[in-house]
Amino acid sequence: MSPDAAPVPGLLAVDLGLRSGLALYGPEGRLRWYRSQNFGSQSRLKRAVPSVLHSSGPLTWLVLEGGGPIAEVWEREAARRALPVLRVSAQDWRARLWLAQVPPEVRR
């Protein structure tokens, strides 16, 4: 990509918590980067979310794994940016994606 080319939008996936996992994917589905971030407290998380979204570059989707008050912080900031949000639970995606590929004898 040339230095003056426009940034390509991505999808940011967040494993919610005060210690969050973050992963940015490009439009082709390739992982661009991943990291973890320890926000330490709910108030620090609230202050940091706008910066995390901004530093991720242009986004087409925000995917949140989990729920509760921490999810609401991310959803409010996404709504302010008109960024679509998909919220999933770990039980759902694991059952659909991971367990479907694991033989029954290994699941025990």
What percent of the residues sit in helical stretches (DSSP H or I)? 25-40%
- Mean pLDDT across all amino acids: 88
Report how far the terminal alpha carbons are from each other.
47 Å
Strands side by side in the biggest sheet = 3-2-1-4-5
Shape: globular
Order of helices and strands: EEEHEHEHH
Task: Give unreliable regions as ranges.
Answer: none
Secondary-structure content class: alpha/beta
- Structural Rg: 16 Å
Can you count the helices? 4
Q: Note the beta-strand portion.
A: 25-35%
What about the largest sheet? 5 strands, mixed
Number-wise, the strands total 5
Task: Provide a compact summary of the structure.
The chain is α/β, with parallel strands linked by helices and 108 residues long. The protein contains 4 helices and 5 strands; from the N terminus they run βββαβαβαα. Strands 3-2-1-4-5 form a 5-stranded mixed beta sheet.
